[in-house]
Design brief:
This protein has about 210 residues and is of the alpha/beta class. The chain folds into two domains: about 1-20 and about 170-190, no CATH class; about 20-170, Rossmann fold (3-Layer(aba) Sandwich). It is built from seven helices and five strands. The chain has a five-stranded parallel sheet with strand order 3-2-1-4-5, with helices on both faces. Strand 1, helix 2 and strand 2 (about 75-80) form a beta-alpha-beta unit. Helix 1 (about 5-15) runs parallel beside helix 7 (about 180-205) and helix 4 (about 120-125) crosses helix 6. The longest helix has 22 residues, at about 180-205. It is globular, with a radius of gyration of 17 Å. The N and C termini lie far apart (about 40 Å). Pfam families: DUF218 (PF02698).
């Protein structure tokens, strides 16, 4: 019952999601960005539905935000994601690359790295790219603290700025009792997962 309350799920999520300053696409603070790194999400590779319906909300927000920022900043997009989809013969980065090509991004502006089956291995696959240029990193707001933990461990020389998307909580909390809500339950689950992951990787960081 507690986890199904919006105020409680927001209370759990807020410390994770609001650690970094949010930017808008037109922010002058992004003028010195040299590349965009958009982390993998998911794509239903075996579905017969139209392409735009196969992207989960988080993945779609990551990609569309990267697209808008590329159009604004005119810098390359770094894409990761290996063979973790339902069809193991294809990589996530293949579909992500097609997404951007279909939206008019030039192929030479896309750097597809078809490796990584989780956050740690994705970042490990692009450390050299991250060390070379000031990078704008796009991912879900709940995902950012874990990305930062990994970057501090395996890419301490990298110069980056976070651009969180898909916020699930409000920074300013208010106490309002609501009927049990599935959305709040899912948000609470996501928060608990991230807290457990951060605790685990703080103590047991894998080797690159």
């Amino acid at each position: 019952m507690l986890c199904s309350q919006y105020w409680f799920s927001s209370w759990l999520l807020a410390p994770i999601e609001h650690q970094h300053q949010p930017y808008n696409i037109n922010s002058p603070d992004l003028a010195d960005i040299e590349q965009i790194f958009v982390l993998a999400g998911y794509y239903e590779s075996r579905s017969t539905l139209p392409d735009h319906t196969r992207w989960p909300n988080a993945s779609y927000k990551r990609n569309t935000t990267a697209l808008f920022l590329h159009e604004k900043l005119q810098v390359p997009i770094l894409i990761t994601g290996g063979h973790f989809l339902s069809d193991k013969q294809v990589s996530y980065s293949e579909f992500s690359k097609v997404f951007f090509l279909d939206k008019g991004v030039a192929e030479e502006a896309l750097i597809a790295v078809p490796h990584g089956h989780n956050t740690f291995t994705e970042i490990s696959a692009v450390v050299e790219h991250l060390n070379q240029k000031r990078t704008l990193i796009i991912s879900s707001a709940t995902h950012i603290p874990r990305i930062e933990l990994f970057l501090e461990s395996i890419a301490p020389e990298a110069d980056y700025v976070f651009f969180p998307v898909e916020y699930l909580s409000r920074k300013q909390l208010s106490f309002v009792v609501n009927p049990p809500a599935l959305y709040a339950l899912r948000s609470s689950q996501r928060a608990i997962y991230e807290y457990l992951a951060l605790t685990y990787y703080t103590w047991f960081m894998p080797e690159r």
